[in-house]
Design brief:
Shape: elongated
Low-confidence stretches: none
Strand content: 15-25%
Order of helices and strands: EHEE
Radius of gyration: 25 Å
Helix content: 10-25%
Strand order of the largest sheet: 1-2-3
CATH architecture of the domain at 1-47: 3-Layer(aba) Sandwich
Distance between the termini: 55 Å
Largest sheet: 3 strands, mixed
CATH topology of the domain at 1-47: YefM-like fold
Length: about 80
């Protein structure tokens, strides 16, 4: 990172690592690319506009839960007294 501009990175170094840099950025985060400490470009990761899941897609699923799901565990009996 360059000390002159917060959130900056030298352009020469970014050229070989750009995919890794962009994948590590959060949505909306900006990175200033610099040459000799002078800002020359801004890379901004876009905010996600769609989601991989569909609301209600698990509505018809049957989920199983053990009858003793919320029973105290035997390992913690000493702490329950």
């Amino acid at each position: 990172m360059s000390a002159s501009v917060p959130g900056s990175f030298p352009l020469a170094s970014a050229a070989t690592m750009l995919p890794e840099i962009v994948n590590g950025m959060a949505g909306g985060e900006e990175l200033v690319l610099t040459t000799d400490g002078v800002p020359v470009a801004v890379v901004r990761r876009l905010q996600r506009t769609s989601w991989p899941s569909i609301p209600g897609s698990a509505a018809q699923r049957t989920l199983w839960m053990a009858p003793d799901f919320d029973s105290p565990l035997d390992d913690f009996a000493d702490y329950m007294e």
